[in-house]
Q: What sequence folds into this?
């Protein structure tokens, strides 16, 4: 039986946002943020998410420059995607993620009462919300 589940990732050197989506309903939801060290996730935590969601496909945000060219961070994200594919045995697709972290931060800031500071919890949610936006872009385009 083919699953409609997809996991999306907002790659970062210190944190990796994770979102889950469904190809049939074309919806995505933020899940969590995994700690990382130099772009390497804590694989055990990632394995727990993989076991829970059992996705058929993975999507990784590709941080392109504003002119669409690839950067050092793009190459690092591609390496992460290759390791993720090797580790899970699943296909990894890349999605242009320009401005998703900025959009996620804006969305979270707009949800804070005027004059109040964002809590650490909300600041930490930027990565998994960015993963949701990346995954939603993939679902909308495919």
A:
């Amino acid at each position: 039986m083919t699953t409609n589940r997809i996991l999306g990732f907002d790659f970062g050197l210190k944190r990796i946002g994770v979102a889950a989506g469904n190809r049939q309903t074309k919806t995505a939801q933020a899940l969590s943020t995994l700690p990382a060290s130099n772009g390497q996730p804590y694989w055990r935590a990632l394995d727990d998410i993989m076991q829970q969601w059992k996705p058929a496909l993975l999507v990784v945000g590709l941080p392109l420059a504003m002119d669409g060219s690839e950067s050092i961070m793009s190459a690092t994200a591609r390496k992460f995607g290759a390791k993720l594919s090797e580790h899970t045995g699943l296909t990894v697709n890349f999605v242009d993620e320009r401005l998703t972290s900025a959009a996620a931060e804006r969305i979270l800031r707009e949800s804070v009462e005027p004059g109040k500071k964002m809590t650490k919890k909300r600041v930490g949610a930027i990565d998994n919300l960015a993963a949701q936006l990346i995954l939603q872009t993939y679902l909308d385009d495919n």
Observations:
- Helices lie at 43-53, 72-88, 100-110, 120-141.
- The longest strand covers residues 27-37.
- The chain is about 45% helix and 25% strand.
